[in-house]
């Protein structure tokens, strides 16, 4: 993951807030400079275009979340447990960082980098679970299964962002329902969906 210098980080964080708040990528230089607390010239020097800035913000956000989730799985071998935790990580973070959650919810289905964040780890774990008999679906249904997981997680994030459910309830329900849909017995799915969720590892 490409590192950002302090000025770029301020611009990215400001852009994330504005993209999430407005649900659009056509920001003005003045608005972005004001939000980031920098001069307009600094924006011109660091932002080739708003479209490129949006793609950079989405790609950096996706790579950061993917790496943190991947690190959390290093000692976790059961694909069903990994999936339950992965779903709950996204939903908990939407609660902890609402602007992050709003950005993901608004743009995940339309941006390739954000879609990859949902699919890359999930695809491997789903195929591993299928090969080991942990899950029950046809391999040609993999894309549909990934879409089911990502859209269900995004829906749960929306419930949390709108205050309809706590992240714990939304995360537990979503993880349990997804595991049951994949063939995990109901009692085991419920247990995995309520296991203590560790903190996401930090990235230096």
What is the overall pLDDT average? Answer: 92
| Unreliable runs | none
Structural shape:
elongated
Q: What is the rounded distance between the termini?
A: 11 Å
The level-1 CATH class of the domain at 54-193: Mainly Alpha
Biggest pleated sheet: none
| CATH fold title of the domain at 54-193 | Tetracycline Repressor, domain 2
Structure description:
The mean pLDDT is 92. The chain starts with 5 loop residues before the first helix and ends in an 11-residue tail after the last helix. It has 204 residues and is mainly α. Helix 1 packs across helix 2, helix 1 crosses helix 4 and helix 5 packs across helix 6. It has a domain of 140 residues: Tetracycline Repressor, domain 2, CATH 1.10.357.10.
Short description:
This protein has about 200 residues and is mostly helical.
Topology:
Elements lengths: L5 H17 L6 H8 L3 H7 L3 H23 L6 H18 L1 H10 L4 H20 L10 H20 L5 H15 L4 H8 L11
Notable characteristics:
Tetracycline Repressor, domain 2, single chain, 204 residues, mainly alpha
């Amino acid at each position: 993951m490409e590192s950002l210098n302090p000025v770029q980080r301020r611009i990215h964080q400001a852009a994330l807030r504005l993209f999430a708040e407005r649900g659009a990528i056509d920001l003005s230089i003045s608005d972005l400079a004001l939000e980031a607390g920098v001069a307009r010239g600094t924006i011109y020097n660091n932002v080739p275009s708003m479209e490129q800035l949006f793609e950079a913000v989405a790609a950096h956000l996706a790579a950061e979340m993917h790496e943190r989730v991947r690190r959390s799985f290093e000692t976790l071998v059961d694909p069903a447990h990994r999936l339950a935790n992965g779903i709950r990580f996204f939903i908990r973070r939407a609660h902890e960082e609402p602007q992050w959650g709003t950005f993901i919810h608004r743009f995940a289905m339309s941006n390739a980098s954000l879609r990859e964040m949902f699919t890359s780890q999930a695809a491997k774990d789903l195929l591993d679970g299928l090969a080991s008999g942990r899950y029950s679906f046809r391999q040609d249904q993999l894309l549909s299964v990934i879409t089911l997981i990502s859209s269900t997680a995004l829906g749960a994030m929306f419930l949390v962002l709108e205050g309809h459910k706590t992240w714990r309830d939304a995360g537990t329900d979503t993880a349990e329902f997804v595991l049951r849909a994949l063939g995990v017995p109901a009692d085991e799915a419920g247990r995995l969906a309520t296991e203590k969720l560790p903190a996401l590892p930090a990235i230096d």
